[in-house]
Amino acid sequence: MNRREFISLLGGAAAAWPRAARAQQQAMPTIGFLHSATSDTVVHFVTAFRNGLRETGFIEGQNLAVEYRFAEGHYDRLPTLAADLVRRQVAVIVASGGDPPALAVKAATATMPIVFTCSTDPVKLGLVTSLNRPGGNATGVSGLTSMMLAKRLELIRELVSSDATIAALVNPSSSSAEAQSEDLLAAAQAYKQRLIVLTASTVGDIDAAFATIIQQHAVALIVDTDAFFLARHDQLSALEAQFDKNSSDLPQREFAVAGSLMSYGVSLSDINRQLGVYAGRILKGEKPSDLPVEQPTKFEFVINLKTAKTLGLTVPATLLTFADEVIE
């Protein structure tokens, strides 16, 4: 090989390097992540999601890219955000933060793989054909959190008198609001407990709901599992702190940490980790139709004793024994 041929060969190889690098970059799969809340309120859930991906061998920024979209509590934005991810032709769309994101993504595509989380029955929502054999293009994790409302009412009744008024707060914009209200009212009727159901879908609505709680002399509050309330756990806890003798049972650990009396519900971190695992398995070739919808396996009951002391409440030993975590 003479000098001219060597230089020509070297030049051809050098020109090929950028093309090879571009091809490798294009080969990196991209998935979409849609959540109904704000990004700053679900940081630990996103971390759990990434941990689930890591379990299947995918690390964001190394062999995987993620397009994040957050509705910031405005459910009317979800269809547009879902449609944007579909236009970008991502490999998988992960819908987290309750029923609304899952329904928005399902409406946006009938072919692109979907991994969802929902709080009610995904079969009734039309997301899958069955839990064991989802069929179609979607699978995920069903929290079935609406089924735990009766348990949460039972827990809060341990701290109030039988003739007391208990309030419940639901988001009317959620597809599960009506079912949750009916379940709560049925449980209250069985216990012969007076219950008032209030609604809130904005920050102002929450303030108005608390004004009604005081007016109705309610001594306890149950907040539903909607992501709108999770994103505003600081506001809810701050309002509760203003009213003496007002105890609460909220759906996730984050509320108790923020200062609410107690929380009982599924571990959202564990659910989001499972979403990451399923997304990774689909990237490796498995079909959503063959992956059964998972049920939550980890539940958390947290009591904030500091808040109990502030409210002048004595937490029964039976509740303390039942608790997974007690915040002193």
In a few lines, what is going on in this structure?
By secondary structure, the chain is α/β, with parallel strands linked by helices.
Largest sheet: 7 strands, mixed
Order of SSEs: HEHEHEHEHEHEHEHEHHEHEHEHHE
What structural class do the secondary elements suggest? alpha/beta
- Which architecture of the largest domain per CATH? 3-Layer(aba) Sandwich
The overall pLDDT, averaged over residues, is: 82
The strand order across the widest sheet is 7-6-8-9-10-11-12
Can you walk through the features of this model?
With 328 residues, this protein is an alpha/beta fold. It folds into two domains: 7-143 and 268-297, Rossmann fold (3-Layer(aba) Sandwich), CATH 3.40.50; 146-266 and 300-327, Rossmann fold, CATH 3.40.50.2300. The protein has 14 helices and twelve strands. The strands form two sheets. The chain has a seven-stranded mixed β-sheet, sandwiched between helices. A five-stranded parallel β-sheet has the order 2-1-3-4-5, with helices on both faces. β6, α7 (177-191) and β7 (194-199) form a beta-alpha-beta unit. α2 (43-55) runs parallel beside α12, α3 packs across α4 and α8 packs parallel to α10 (233-241). The longest helix has 25 residues, at 3-27. Mean pLDDT is 82; it is low at 5-17 and 19-25.
